[in-house]
């Protein structure tokens, strides 16, 4: 029998396959990548997964749990080398023979992950010492140990490395958010900034004015990598 229009719109059929926390987190990541943090709601997940609130709350406690789980999943993917960002590195886990290459890969893996998922950078600022990030910190400590960095220097070295990587990743996320809502692209923004720097007082800002050309042409990822290499050269003197 035909459906009476007065009965209202037809509901999407409920899913018949099993629901799991892993599936929910993967779907949350999809929503976050598509629309940012504001797009992720419990209702949006129930619609995307074709399930009810009760079934969803059986696996996750609330929206913060979703954000935490999604962020941890991205970081864990970098650590395991299974994330698409880590695949770009050629090798990206702490099991590599060369600890310096592994540190470089971990740093670039997290930087690329935040660039691909800007919401991760903001989540790291909201809750910095989450479990997956502790695993990241542990991996760094073990690699510094493999480089024979002395015990008395290892804590400071690990903290410095973490601060640099997380700070650069957070800045990358902030830049991505700004450009996403700006009326100009990155090249235009850098050109306008360089133009303002050129007009600065050369007596007060000699270095800033000297960097104008590099500012216009620089690549954020390459600059980040240069910073990682400076760190690696520095700890080589500690080994």
Q: What order do the helices and strands come in, and which of them pair?
A:
Blueprint: H1 21-35, H2 42-49, H3 53-57, H4 63-80, H5 84-87, H6 99-116, H7 118-126, H8 131-146, H9 151-181, H10 186-198, H11 206-210, H12 212-217, H13 220-236
Helix pairs in contact: 1-2, 1-4, 4-6, 4-7, 4-8, 6-7, 6-8, 6-9, 6-13, 7-9, 8-9, 9-13
Spans of 5+ residues with little confidence (pLDDT < 50)? 8-12, 83-96
CATH-assigned fold name of the largest domain = Tetracycline Repressor, domain 2
- Shape by Cα distribution: flat
How much of the sequence lies in strands comes to under 5%
Written account of the structure:
This protein is mainly alpha-helical. It folds into two domains: 13-60, Arc Repressor Mutant, subunit A; 70-236, Tetracycline Repressor, domain 2. Helix content is 69%, strand content 0%. The relative contact order is 0.09. Mean pLDDT is 83; it is low at 8-12 and 83-96.
